[in-house]
Amino acid sequence: MSSAPSPVSDLDHDLSAAPESASDAAADVLTLSEATESIEGADGAEGTSDPDAAGKPQVARWFAVQVASSCEKKVKATLEQRAVTLGVANRILEIEIPQTPGVKLKKDGSRQSIEEKVFPGYVLVRMVLDEDTMMAVRSTPNVINFVGQEERRATGKARGHIRPRPLSSQEVNRIFKRAAEKKPVVKVDLAEGDQILVTAGPFKDFQGEVIDVSGERSKLKALLSIFGRETPVELEFSQISKQS
After folding, report:
1. Residue 154 CA to its chain's centroid (Å)
2. For 106, phi and psi rounded to 5 degrees?
3. What is the distance between the alpha carbons of residues 74 and 22, in angstroms, rounded to a whole number?
4. Neighbour count for residue 71 (Cβ, 10 Å)
5. Which of 13, 47, 183, 241 places its Cα 20 to 30 Å from the Cα of 154?
6. Same-domain status, 31 and 150
């Protein structure tokens, strides 16, 4: 396995090799021999599927797949159906969207439980990599491409093939551990410059302007006019309502 940077590590990996559209990705297919070379010696194995025609065990590994914005669930559902229809369900074994619990604060101050994606724009697939499974993934609507290493073309400026790179077992463990341990994130429909009304606490009925929002702490800072002076005050999300 190459010593190139990990494909999914806090989203710091290089995505410049990914095609710009799903149609580009569908046309960009590696041969079976190239795909086999890309995973040879990789340590991200997560079990095996049925043996191939030669009786050799087929190793299933986790791969990261880049998808269109906000289409993670749609891709997961579609790919699960396509795997059955195309007869590769025994080689596309799991499709996951790592998520962590979150809370969305509505304008009226009420809270709604939500699921926050750990890596927005990505789906993890545990699969045996071959021509059929690659085509099944790449040709799924809203899929951009696998995360991997670009193989530059010898001539011209066109993009080369993307060689899918399996995730290591350490990367997989870190991703799912992060999803399991991450503290709930509070999302609020507020941004710097928004006008608010304080609805509870010592500054009740004061109006002000938001200057900072901290979702992890469930707090914000706002400038309130106190004794004729603009004063920064820290408030709980539950203490304010957004003004239209």
Report:
1. 32
2. -80, 170
3. 14
4. 18
5. 13
6. yes
Specify the number of domains making up the chain.
Answer: 2
Q: Is 3 among the domain residues?
A: no
Alpha helices in 65-206 (DSSP H): 72-85, 131-138, 169-181
Give the type of residue at 140.
Answer: T
Q: What is the DSSP string of 127-164?
A: E--SHHHHHHHHTSTTEEEESEEEE--SSSSS--EEEE
Contact, 103 vs 186, CB < 8 A?
yes
The reported pTM is 0.58
pLDDT per position as a tens digit, 25-73: 333 333 333 333 333 334 445 555 555 555 556 789 999 999 998 999 9
pLDDT digit string, tens, across residues 134-167: 999 999 999 999 998 887 666 655 555 788 999 9
Coil, helix or strand at residue 77:
helix
Q: Tell me which residue has tokens 């299933």.
A: 60
3-state secondary structure (DSSP) of residue 53: coil
In which domain, by residue range, is 133 found? 22-184
